[in-house]
């Protein structure tokens, strides 16, 4: 699309009023807009410092000047706000301006377009929809929505082009030519007024012909400025036509956007109906694999609990080479607490139980927390 300019950088016309004494002094000295720069400067100082009154312009002229000033400010701000409306991201606008400048320097014909938010959203949806795959209802819906968002971005690009050609460019041309020309005429008028007032105060000390020429130039500039302002105000129907073009472009954009969104809504509703009509797949958990915990860690202060060992004719309770001691008790049932001796113990007192390493001891009754029957 054509190059856009950031509203902060648009060289639109400023306020169209007769310049202040300070600005006019700089203008006259630097550019020589007035016929006699010395007389202009002296008269300017006289009015600014001494409070002298200059020639007054008629009320019709002042009223016309005020209307032109308001028109200029309106066009300037509407231009900036329109660009913000079409391209709301200031960072993207700045980047686009830079890229367009680079493209122009390189002689490239096609300039990059503004990254529409609808297009960025559509690309995001399509990317994740593909990742989810065709078996996902959500993934398919994201693909549908993403394609619609990209279509919306294309329609938005068309809106940008239409508004630029039929609204922004004509208003920009108004600022760059008509309003700028009026501003120039008003500055020239103010310079000639100061020159005429200076010479009028020195009537009798300067030739009458010089005073007459100053008056003629002042009246000539006033007529030119008045004519240019009148023409601008009388042809303001052109700005109405341009505003109508903006509204027409917006209407066309919104009609197409509604059509695209209606189609997307129908697709999504159809997917919802199809999904609800399909039988739901029941979740069937896989059978758990048996898990062998192995022999538990021995952490009972040297007296670990042990499960009852398997009894075979060739097995015993000990793994050492000592004589086998057959326990006087039968193997303990699995639901009673038991322990396995870690070493031999010879009783020293009555009531104490002797055992050998590897013997399984069953606890039959607990007397207190430190003593049990076996």
Question: How would you explain this protein's 3D organization?
Answer:
The protein has 374 residues and is mainly alpha-helical. It has two domains: 10-277, Up-down Bundle (Substrate Binding Domain Of Dnak, Chain:A, Domain 2); 305-374, SH3 type barrels (Roll). The protein is built from eight helices and four strands, in the order H-H-H-H-H-H-H-H-E-E-E-E. It has helices spanning 21-31, 37-49, 59-86, 90-106, 117-132, 137-200, 208-234, 237-277, and strands at 338-340, 360-362, 365-368, 371-373. The chain has a two-stranded antiparallel ribbon. A two-stranded antiparallel sheet has the order 3-4. Strand 3 and strand 4 (371-373) form a beta hairpin. Helix 6 (137-200) runs antiparallel to helix 7. It is elongated, with a radius of gyration of 49 Å. InterPro entries: AH/BAR_dom_sf, BAR_dom, Endophilin_SH3RF, SH3-like_dom_sf, SH3_domain.
The overall pLDDT average reads: 79
Going by CATH, what is the homologous superfamily of the largest domain? Arfaptin homology (AH) domain/BAR domain
- Element-by-element helix/strand order: HHHHHHHHEEEE
The biggest beta sheet, please? 2 strands, antiparallel
CATH class label of the largest domain: Mainly Alpha
Low-confidence stretches: 7-35, 308-330
Helix content: 55-70%
Structural domain count: 2
Task: Look at the helices and sheets and give the structural class.
Answer: mainly alpha
User: Helix count, per DSSP?
Assistant: 8
| Overall morphology | elongated
